[in-house]
Design a protein that fits this description.
- It is a single chain.
- The chain is α/β, with parallel strands linked by helices and about 160 residues long.
- The chain has a single domain (about 5-160), classed as Rossmann fold, CATH 3.40.50.300.
- Helix content is about 30%, strand content about 25%.
- The chain contains 4 helices and 8 strands.
- The chain has helices at about 15-25, 70-80, 100-110, 150-160, and strands spanning about 5-10, 30, 35-40, 40-45, 50-55, 85-90, 115-120, 140-145.
- A 6-stranded mixed sheet has the order 4-5-1-6-7-8, with helices on both faces.
- Helix 2 packs parallel to helix 3.
- The relative contact order is 0.20.
- It binds guanosine-5'-diphosphate and magnesium ion.
- Guanosine-5'-diphosphate binds next to helix 1.
- GTPase that plays an essential role in the late steps of ribosome biogenesis.
- Belongs to the TRAFAC class TrmE-Era-EngA-EngB-Septin-like GTPase superfamily. EngA (Der) GTPase family.
- This is GTPase Der.
Length: about 160
């Protein structure tokens, strides 16, 4: 079966945007309830003739502020269990948060390939602010703008290296 790329990260960091860009089309699942659309959780991806399945762990449970951390813990566990490669997405405009640090600690203990993805860097020139992300102890940050479609080729090169 295809390798699994699991996307994990706080609400609003841009996981769904990245997922949709890699999947290459706007996709949503309409739930049983009329009028309710939810983000899709699974999609197939391809890069340089290598095929994989993506999981957007952020779509697994609806977000509610008071349970963000327990939800994040669960999503990180799912990513660790299922992912061959884990994309840990953080917000390059907001910087590191305590939730990012906790999730990074969980991921670091897992024996999986973790790629630290700093999103929302919307300019071609990488700002010095991204250096703070080395603190998470997950290696060199991969800088992208999912919104603008910047850096996605370099990210996918890194992803498929680990299959
Ligand atoms: P998720 O909750 O992690 O799935 O995040 P979403 O993909 O829903 O994005 C949350 C918000 O961040 C939305 O308003 C997006 O338009 C915005 N966003 C996503 N990617 C980028 C980006 O690369 N740059 C900027 N400036 N905003 C982004
Ligand atoms: Mg989402």
């Amino acid at each position: 079966s295809r390798p699994i790329v699991a996307i994990v990260g706080r609400p609003n960091v841009g996981k769904s945007t990245l997922f949709n860009k890699i999947a290459g089309r706007r996709i949503s699942i309409v739930e049983d309830k009329p009028g309710v659309t939810r983000d899709r959780i699974y999609a197939e991806g391809e890069w340089l003739n290598k095929y994989f399945t993506m999981i957007d762990t952020g779509g697994i449970e609806p977000a509610s502020d008071d349970i963000i951390m327990s939800q994040m813990r669960r999503q990180a566990e799912i990513a660790i269990e299922t992912g061959d490669v884990i994309l840990f997405v953080v917000d390059g405009l907001e910087g590191i948060t305590s939730t990012d640090k906790e999730v990074a600690n969980m991921l670091r203990k897992a024996n999986k390939e973790i790629l630290l993805v700093v999103n929302k860097i919307d300019t071609p020139k990488t700002p010095d602010t991204i250096y703070e992300f080395y603190e998470l102890g997950l290696g060199s940050p991969i800088v992208i703008s999912a919104g603008q479609g910047l850096g996605l080729g370099d990210l996918l090169d890194e992803v498929v290296k680990h299959f």
